[in-house]
Specification:
With 288 residues, the chain is of the alpha/beta class. It is built from nine helices and six strands. Strands 1-2-3-4-6-5 form a six-stranded mixed β-sheet, with helices on both faces. Strand 3, helix 3 and strand 4 form a beta-alpha-beta unit. Helix 6 crosses helix 9 and helix 8 crosses helix 9.
């Protein structure tokens, strides 16, 4: 049972975003607000928290916040980004590669069959620091920066800056930014019903408990990842200039038929006693 901390979970929360965007009308509203010139009329397919698994066991999987396909077969990936980690362009590159390899081109199809795709990151911060409300990534050859010289490869990327000034924005974009920032949307706005869904979620004890449970699991995963990285770094440092590092030690103990629990306990005591055994066990399982 999770104690309710009274926190308001807004549209930018992963669970809330996914719940609100399960409605196709809401998806169309957001897409047409950000991409008004496309005049998207219908959605053929949409799913939230779509997992794209890698064929290569060692490759990183991708979980898309919202994957959409319109009536023309164009693929959209809409992501809610709340943390500025400095690797957003690289993340876009990786997402695009996964979308292309898994979703847009079937085996044995030629490259001219590659479907168009658009990635949208709605950011609760300014991703590039220029103050623009909307950034669009475009590809040009060096020395050829005219719009008519732009390279069109069927992939577009947009970044929405929810901290930007919206004085010159459309009324729809202003309301979308208000929704992201948990500010009151006028009742006459098409975004008002979305804001009401957000409020309903926050008023539901069961849904609030689910959100807090998910957030706790995310925090646990992040802490574990940091600790694993920390211990691996320390292990590598201790191994420099030594014949036997921690990995060879564990392998030798395994050959002696010493049980994993005893091995983990020894590593826990001798190398990094402040780390929980559960974390060390995960590292042992991964490496051995």
């Amino acid at each position: 049972m999770y104690k309710d901390n009274g926190k308001f979970f807004g549209f930018s929360n992963d669970y809330v975003f996914g719940d609100v965007m399960e409605n196709k009308d809401n998806i169309l509203l957001v897409l047409n607000t950000i991409l008004p010139t496309l005049h998207i009329k219908n959605i053929k397919y949409a799913t939230t928290q779509k997992q794209i698994n890698s064929v290569d066991f060692h490759s990183k999987d991708v979980r898309l916040d919202l994957q959409v396909e319109d009536e023309k077969g164009k693929i959209y990936d809409v992501e809610m980004q709340t943390s500025k980690n400095g690797y957003l362009p690289q993340r876009v590159r990786y997402y695009q590669s996964k979308i292309d390899s898994k979703l847009t081109l079937d085996k044995n199809e030629s490259y001219d069959k590659l479907r168009d795709s658009i990635i949208i990151f709605i950011c609760t911060f300014d991703p590039f620091g220029y103050g623009d409300l909307q950034y669009e990534r475009q590809i040009y050859l060096k020395g050829h920066l005219k719009e008519e010289e732009r390279i069109i490869d069927g992939s577009d990327v947009y970044f929405i800056n929810a901290t930007a000034n919206t004085n010159n924005a459309s009324s729809m974009m202003k309301d979308l930014i208000k929704l992201v920032n948990n500010k009151q949307v006028d009742k006459s706005s098409k975004y008002y019903s979305m804001q009401e869904i957000v409020r309903e979620i926050n008023a539901d004890p069961e849904r609030r408990a689910k959100i807090m449970s998910l957030e706790e699991k995310i925090r646990d995963r992040e802490v574990t990842a940091r600790l694993e990285g920390k211990v691996e770094g320390r292990i590598e440092g201790k191994a420099e200039g030594k014949i036997e590092d921690i990995y060879s030690l564990i392998k030798r103990l395994k050959k002696l038929n010493i049980d994993s629990e005893t091995i983990a306990s020894s590593v826990h005591e001798d190398y990094d006693s402040e780390l929980p055994l559960s974390t060390i066990n995960k590292i042992l399982d991964k490496e051995l």
